[in-house]
Amino acid sequence: GENVEQHPSTLSVQEGDSAVIKCTYSDSASNYFPWYKQELGKGPQLIIDIRSNVGEKKDQRIAVTLNKTAKHFSLHITETQPEDSAVYFCAAITADSWGKLQFGAGTQVVVTP
Amino acid sequence: NAGVTQTPKFRILKIGQSMTLQCTQDMNHNYMYWYRQDPGMGLKLIYYSVGAGITDKGEVPNGYNVSRSTTEDFPLRLELAAPSQTSVYFCASSYSSGGSEAFFGQGTRLTVV
Known about the structure:
A: mainly beta, six-stranded mixed sheet, B: seven-stranded mixed sheet, four-stranded antiparallel sheet, 11 strands, globular
């Protein structure tokens, strides 16, 4: 089955700097890669996603890149703000998996003013 | 819209007790999922359902059971609670299986003592 690894496990950045989180996946049949943000005491919430036929996607200060050959994808947050502090999860889905998300272990991001 | 609603938010169980975690969604989604979240481990799939009357095991189903009698409701049953079931439980739903946003509830924090 699919295995998703995520690094780093914690990331501390100064407000205004950029943050990058990297994930690798094992199943070449994976075709959908969402990123979720989880704030303290809440459920994960989708912030951006990318499909396997696209190399990069951007939404304001966040962007995701996908390298299918190397089987890795990354989340980039620019001009970080204190409200970006949260746990971020990457995930992968294969076409025949009934939408079951295989999650990475998560990255705790702390943005210090 | 309420989205995905989970009850209760918190619960303490004694070893050997049983309980049902409730999950309901008002988005008419066919696909529903139960995940557990342990510290530093990401989210692991317990059970999932692709429609009313259809359920299947996920990655960590032992000690749990589910039913799906309606599109809206997907309760998770714990029989004979064990300390290893101390975790945060999330219910989620999605519109399709091919890669669409999964909506998560707020979670149930369960402690087994």
